[in-house]
Amino acid sequence: MGPKDKKRTGKPFPKGRQASDADIAAVRALVGDVEPGRDQLIEHLHTLNDHYGYLSTGHIAALAHLLGLAQIDVYETATFYAHFEVGDTPPAPITLRICDGPACRMAGAKALLKDAMAAFDDQVQVSAAPCQGACDTPPSAIMDKIRISSATVEKLTPHNNAPSSLPAINDIPLPSAPDIAKAVSKAELRGMGGAGFPVARKWAFFDGAPNPRVLVVNADEGEPGTFKDRYLLETEPEKVLRGMLIAAQTLNVQDVFFYLRDEYPHIHAMLVDVFKRMEIDGVTLHLRRGAGAYICGEETALLNSLEGKRGQPRNRPPYPAKHGYKGRPTIMQNVETLYWIADIADRGAEAYVSEGRPRFYSLSGRIKNPGVYRAASTTTVKGLIDMAGGIVDGHRFTAFLPGGASGGIFPARFEDKAMDFGVFEELGGFVGSGALTVLSDHDDVWDVARTLAAFFMDESCGKCTPCRIGTEKMLGLIDNPRGNADLIHELSNAMRDASICGLGQAAPNPVLSLLTHFEEDDR
Q1: Of 448, 420, 449, which is closest to residue 434 (Cα–Cα)?
Q2: For residue 13, which phi and psi values (nearest 5 degrees)?
Q3: Which helix (H) or strand (E) holds 95?
Q4: Which of 187, 201, 253, 194 shows the shortest CA–CA distance to 229?
């Protein structure tokens, strides 16, 4: 019907793709009555993707209609996240994602991926995936939301003690806000998500901030080699959630958003049950799923994701503490940080300090007993390796990653360095989230760097040119790192100086640390 037809009938004819009545009815049956806007967009996309296995143009049109959004708003969000299948051709009935992270590659993930692709028919869609947070039980694979690695059966189910014991959290008196703020300051507690920013200083940004305020729990640990938050939520969820309540009270927030990575469905099932029965006076709890985007570990990208947008970092200022979720003052805390807030509230700052300001380290790679270890911040690389039973038999310790993909790669001669904030910065790296990955003479350090460079290129959100183009160029330059050393340094300086967020700024670290600290023939 053209303009002339519209004039004859007197009825407006809408332009563009229209949602059919059948698609609207099908989508409404799954998502229910929805509020207009983008707030719950990603949750609704998860609901549809979980049910159908993909998101068709009809699904997108219908969801946009129900939410009162333009279809492009829904489409741009759906296509940004790795865990949403967008298209009109239904994928294979079963999806198998095999981890391609450093620890899993050491355990044979590359061969496993090749064999799986050859063995399965078109009923199974097989693909490589970034670190799945199971570096202690490699190689890891997730089939339709269920881990099929060598993880124990208990890790596939909600924490057994959590549902029965969580209500007791509401019965435990919480410390007064001034007391806990003073204790956290005295303990010199730092954020355990990677940046290590002092918690008390972050809380001070809320001074004078208007209501309503927001607390965001960042449980989207995506740094390759990091799985401590998963461990804490599996083994001591009560303490983590108590820390969340203490922080919510101390900061006088009205909303708490718990943002959990999508690779932890068993923890999501536990939290759904727990959140139904948790009560915080004057506070509303929200549980949200990530959707496979490493960049959402950056706090402003995570905030955009909570708002139903592409997970791209924001320019700062303004900072989240002043202008965060939907313009409201917002503080973000990592899962492990909340654990230590509860610990300090229970035992006092003195106990925390006397124990050496402990933290949880994720240990993986060529060690006998990979896992999460609690140790003082002054513990050395060698000390942690010894705690994990030492190097596996038949291997010689040659190198290590102290802070996951972005913390750099260092030779074994630095084994006496403490795994503490500020130590590896002097060497061009950092400890970050405390993810120690151990390499041996069976590993090619440049192959590891190439894998990490490919990871950064894939995970770049594409918003800023230095990161979007720089990560791609870096991957090409690694083929001849010594011959391209000058170009690598020039490119790295541009990425560090001009990238919007930490992904682009830290992406050169693995390559630069190898050029700086390894001999030319080191492999």
Answers
A1: 420
A2: -115, 110
A3: strand 94-99
A4: 194
The pLDDT value recorded for residue 157 is 34
Stretch 32-48: mean pLDDT: 96
Residue reference for tokens 């060598």: 150
CA distances from 381 to 165, 191, 439, 512 (A): 36, 20, 12, 20
Q: Residue 474: which residues within 8 A CB-CB, separation 6 or more?
A: 453, 456, 457, 488, 491, 492, 495, 507, 508, 511
Cα-flanking dihedrals φ and ψ of residue 123, to 5°?
-85, -10
- pLDDT, one tens digit per residue, over 271-310 is 999 998 887 888 999 999 999 999 999 999 999 999 999 9
* Statement: residue 172 has pLDDT above 90: no
CB 378 within 8 A of CB 417: no
> How are beta strands 435-440 and 359-365 bridged, if at all?
parallel
The amino acid sitting at 106 is M
Confidence class of residue 150 from pLDDT cuts 50, 70 and 90?
Answer: very low
C-alpha–C-alpha distance, residues 148 and 77, integer Å: 29
pLDDT classification of 7: cutoffs 50, 70, 90: very low
Listed residue (14, 17, 34) closest to 71, CA to CA: 17
State the pLDDT at residue 166: 56
Q: Token pair of 355, please?
A: 């124990």
Do 133 and 364 meet the contact criterion of CB atoms below 8 Å apart? no
* Spatial CB neighbours of 359, under 8 Å, sequence gap ≥ 6: 192, 336, 340, 374, 375, 377, 434
List the beta strands (DSSP E) in 330-421.
330-334, 359-365, 371-375, 397-401, 410-411
Exposure b/e, 13-32, CB count within 10 A at least 16 = b:
eeeeeebeeebbebbeeebe
The torsion region of residue 390 among left (phi > 0), alpha (psi -120 to 50) and beta comes to left
Q: How many other CB atoms are found less than 10 A from the CB of residue 477? A: 17
497/252 Cα distance (integer angstroms):
36
What is the 8-class DSSP label of residue 289?
E
Name the pLDDT band for 155 (thresholds 50, 70, 90).
very low
CB within 8 A of 432, min separation 6: which ones? Answer: 194, 195, 196, 223, 402, 403, 404, 406, 407
List pLDDT tens digits, range 15-27. 678 899 999 999 9
Identity at 216, one-letter amino acid code: V
pLDDT of residue 278: 85
Q: How many helices and strands in the chain, by DSSP H and E?
A: 22, 13
Over residues 198-219, the mean pLDDT reads 95
Residue 404, token pair as written in the block? 């996951």
Question: pLDDT tier at 121 (50, 70, 90 boundaries)?
Answer: confident
